[in-house]
């Protein structure tokens, strides 16, 4: 290393004249020695100057290369065509995770039990598919699932969100369920009601979720937003 204090002290002890010459007033200065010392300090100053200059140059180049690095990174990000699009064709930001929101409409042809959802009412579908009255999961993870239906009361009504998974040989499994039973007295006045279900479930790729009711004839589909089914990854 350049700055070895121990060796400096040692040198002073062995050869004090090098350091004492200037301060010692009683002793006459010895020209050759002084000249030697001046020369030495001149060399030391030059060396110091060179070192400081090199250090400053180092800092300058470092700053320059860091600047270049940021510039090239910025350019490669903006130029890259592999960057996924973050907006849809209308310029709206895309969701960060899979999401689906389906509504009812005239084109939704219900099965006697399984509810169908509109494809013309601009369903929100991102990283999920809608096929044969089922929402198909593309990405494994936790999903918040919900469904709301508007129906006419008629003795008994059952609304459930079901899942089909390969693990259970494609059999329907109930995830959420709401039931209503009316007494004989209540059945006399025909009235309407709503049922809302929601919960969080772990779903795998190709799992299918759907809405099953005791009878789709009881579903009232006057307005698309009165019957809905959706899910989003959390
Ligand atoms: C729908 O629910 C009914 C009971 O309300 C049940 O009998 C039927 O098997 C279910 N259908 C499907 C496809 O899950």
Task: List the SSEs and their pairings.
Elements: H1 5-14, H2 17-20, H3 31-79, E1 99-103, E2 124-126, E3 128-131, E4 134-137, E5 141-152, E6 156-164, E7 172-181, H4 184-187, E8 192-203, E9 208-213, E10 228-233
Antiparallel strand pairs: 1-2, 1-10, 3-4, 4-9, 5-8, 5-10, 6-7, 6-9
2-acetamido-2-deoxy-beta-D-glucopyranose binds at residues 113-114, 158, 162, 172, 212, 214.
What does this protein look like?
This protein has helices spanning 5-14, 17-20, 31-79, 184-187, and strands at residues 99-103, 124-126, 128-131, 134-137, 141-152, 156-164, 172-181, 192-203, 208-213, 228-233. By secondary structure, the protein is of the alpha+beta class. The chain has a domain at 96-233: Jelly Rolls, CATH 2.60.120.40. A five-stranded antiparallel sheet has the order 2-1-10-5-8, with no helix packed on it. Mean pLDDT is 82; it is low at 1-13 and 16-21.
By CATH, the architecture of the domain at 96-233 is named: Sandwich
The percent of residues in helical segments reads: 25-40%
Order of helices and strands: HHHEEEEEEEHEEE
Query: What's the CATH C level of the domain at 96-233?
Result: Mainly Beta
The whole-angstrom Rg is 41 Å
* Ligands, ions, cofactors: 2-acetamido-2-deoxy-beta-D-glucopyranose
Could you tell me the CATH topology label of the domain at 96-233. Jelly Rolls
Low-confidence stretches: 1-13, 16-21
Please report the number of helical segments. 4
> Order of strands across the widest beta sheet?
2-1-10-5-8
Task: Report the principal-axis shape.
Answer: rod-shaped
Major sheet, described briefly?
Answer: 5 strands, antiparallel
How would you state the average pLDDT, rounded?
82
Question: How far apart lie the N and C ends?
Answer: 58 Å
């Amino acid at each position: 290393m350049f700055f070895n204090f121990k060796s400096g002290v040692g040198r002073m002890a062995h050869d004090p004249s090098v350091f004492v010459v200037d301060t010692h007033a009683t002793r006459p200065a010895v020209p050759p020695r002084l000249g030697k010392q001046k020369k030495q300090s001149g060399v030391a100053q030059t060396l110091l100057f060179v070192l400081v200059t090199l250090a400053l140059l180092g800092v300058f180049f470092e700053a320059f290369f860091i600047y270049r690095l940021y510039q090239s990174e910025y350019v490669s990000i903006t130029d890259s065509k592999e960057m996924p699009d973050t907006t849809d064709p209308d310029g709206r930001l895309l969701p960060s995770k899979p999401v689906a929101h389906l509504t009812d409409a005239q084109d939704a042809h219900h099965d006697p039990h399984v509810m169908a959802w509109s494809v013309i009412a601009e369903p929100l579908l991102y990283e999920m598919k809608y096929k044969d009255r089922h929402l198909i999961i593309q990405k494994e993870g936790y999903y918040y699932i919900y469904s709301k239906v508007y129906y006419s009361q008629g003795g008994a009504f059952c609304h459930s969100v079901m899942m089909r998974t390969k693990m259970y040989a494609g059999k329907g499994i109930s995830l959420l369920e709401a039931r209503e039973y009316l007494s004989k007295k209540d059945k006399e006045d025909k009235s309407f009601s709503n049922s809302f279900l929601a919960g969080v479930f772990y779903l795998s790729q190709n799992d299918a979720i759907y809405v099953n009711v005791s009878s789709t004839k009881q579903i009232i589909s006057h307005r698309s937003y009165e019957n809905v089914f959706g899910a989003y990854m959390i």
